[in-house]
């Protein structure tokens, strides 16, 4: 009886451990990128870089995200400054992310953030989380 219980426990632990490992595996067939920036105008060269990498890598090109943090985050609610970048980013397959911590610190109304821009709680933490799963990262 002890052997049966012990074997059952070992089997259960093995199954749950294997499921967890599979969920954390990285897809090395795609190149994923994340850029952390403090200035909205830097979106122009970042998007151009994404377009070049996509053309160069073809099917190996994966996900490309840009996280905006810092004191100039308020520019993302200025339609004149952000709308052109949103359009270019969508065409290039670039996802724009806003740091919720920065939005709070610099008192930017989250309800005015364009719907195309995702807000994460902490942009720096989000960047590290992406790096942990294999994203190539640069900060500007």
TrEMBL record:
The lineage of its organism: Bacteria, Pseudomonadati, Bacteroidota, Flavobacteriia, Flavobacteriales. This is Sulfur reduction protein DsrE. The keyword Signal applies. Keywords: Signal. Gene3D superfamilies: DsrEFH-like (3.40.1260.10). It comes from Aequorivita echinoideorum. The keyword Signal applies. SUPFAM superfamilies: DsrEFH-like (SSF75169). Residues 1-23 form the signal peptide.
């Amino acid at each position: 009886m002890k052997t049966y219980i012990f074997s059952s426990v070992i089997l259960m632990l093995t199954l749950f451990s294997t499921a967890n490992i599979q969920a954390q595996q990285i897809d090395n067939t795609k190149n994923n990128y994340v850029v952390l920036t403090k200035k909205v105008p830097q979106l122009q060269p970042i998007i151009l870089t994404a377009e070049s990498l996509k053309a160069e890598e073809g099917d190996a090109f994966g996900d490309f995200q840009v996280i905006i943090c810092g004191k100039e985050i308020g520019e993302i609610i200025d339609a004149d400054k952000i709308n052109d970048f949103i359009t270019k980013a969508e065409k290039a397959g670039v996802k724009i992310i806003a740091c919720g911590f920065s939005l709070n610190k610099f008192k930017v109304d989250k309800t005015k953030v364009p719907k195309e821009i995702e807000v994460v709680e902490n942009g720096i933490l989000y960047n590290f989380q992406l790096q942990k799963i294999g994203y190539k990262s640069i900060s500007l």
